Please model this.
Amino acid sequence: MTEIIERPAAAGPITAPNWGLTKFLDPLRIPPVLRPRGRETITIPMVVQRQRLHSELPESTLWTYAGHFPGPTIEVRSGKQLRISWSNEIDGEFPLAAVQGPITDGPASRPGRDLDRPGYSIIEGVADLPSWTVVHLHGARTNAGNDGWAHNAGLKGTSQLAEYQNQQQAMPLWYHDHAMAITRFNVHTGLTGMYLVRDDEEDALGLPHGDHEIPLIITDRNLDTDPATQELTGQLLFKVPALPNGTLIPFTGPFNLVNGVIWPHLDVDARWYRFRLLNAANSRFYTLNLVDENNVPVNDAVRLIGTDGGLLPAPAELPKGGLTVAPAERFDVLIDFSRFKGRKLKLRNADPQLGSIEPDLMEFRVDDRAKHDPFKLPAKLSTSYVRLQHGTTLPEDHDHVWVALLLNAAGHPEMWDLQQVDADPGGPGIIQIEDPNGGLKTFRVNGRLFDDTTGIFIDHDRWAVWNLVHVANGGPAHPIHVHLTEFQALFRRSFTTTFDQATERTTAPISGFGDIPLEKYEEGWKDTIIVRPGQWVSVAGQFGGGTGEFMFHCHILDHEDEGMMRPFVVHPPEVAKFHVHPGGGHHHDAARAAGREWLGAG
Model:
């Protein structure tokens, strides 16, 4: 275990370019691949590992899956069941140093604890955390008992036996820790990895594979410094800004990593490659461009062929300005390097945000020799894809779920699931929305914290439309993830918000709706979607493949830990008829009433 230095860091930012680290020095690390055979149980231990994040750094102490950061890439065939025993074998102290500093001083932009600077302090309790872990396979359709319920974490010496049916089309899932209230810290230690489902439809496309199919797991980190020399120590540093009222801003760090390496390079042949892209950062949104030696975008060499939930119907170009990837989003990306023989390209972030100084992520070094490439970009990808349309591919008989995203009276982000009421009862916790076709909907908050009353119940195999309404005047965008299902975005709308933060309610019905065109890739299957302030995003998914109590939440891990997570239940419809809710009626009847059509929500 690396000694955690408690002496204050020297005043002032580290001014050496890239803090003394050479960009693009180290090769990209490729996680090992596990390909289990059929119905079997494999054990994946969680263990302490010392690993260099850059060859010019000392080793960092990490918590890992099977000794790797990121963890092994698990590959399975669609329909082939797999059981995994996630074994907690983590010894020693918590490997993060956690510090907060005043937002006006820009603490996220530089390494070191800065404890000699005004307003900086240790975040109490983080150093005392035990190895308390639970694994969530993000995007999996599985029973709730296998889903990684946040309260069901276990201490060292215990195992979590999870069964994954893999009754899903080819798609990129990922696994990570999900322990209640400390997910942001546990994931930050290194507990993350990729999980790929394969099927015949994907195989038939002849996509680049083997050495030409590579995961790119993007994260950001901060590191401590030696107070005497200001040299980086390799110690992971969870350093966050604090607002004057004490609210902590989610973590961002000055070092971008790909596959656990700071600013790596990858030697590539002059041919097509397939990259399985994952944003595994705590909170950072990346807007990615492929650029040449002069930082000029060459995105016309890039095609998107898939999203969180599998293949798109046809290849799509990158959006103008680059591809924005929120935490937990995955993209299946093809790059044609054949026109760049002997050149160097970079993956570059055009949206630096708070705490980022270096926009470059990694470098591609293209071989100068021509390569025979059997792959030809097809005009059509997924023949099984169906675009959801109301009344046809989306059944008319479906449920509605309403969720409000907001800033509460204290200025902290919250997520409310809503219950419709007949009239405004007055007081806080009320959201009113005006129907442009006439009429008014009034909702009251049902739950605002994870352990509040469960208010969402959906019949197994039933379709549900989730209406995600970001009513805050400003504040952050939220990547909202719903467990158990893949969904399609039906629409994205802007509106004029009247939510009053001080009274925690709308002062007049929300109105002034305008359609925002969806990006072509947003029509694909997803399980995480960005909702920005003043936007209403409607998504539709079918809730099959598992039953029990699941979670939906913001995938900014700091927000999730601090309250932006709520439960919902999927149960057989035959059981729902007998399940009495706190108001006295039956959940089955309440769900039908909530599904009435209005506002074009379907």
Observations:
- Helices lie at 183-188, 200-203, 557-561, 573-576, 587-594.
- The first helix runs from residue 183 to 188.
- The first strand starts at residue 33 and ends at 34.
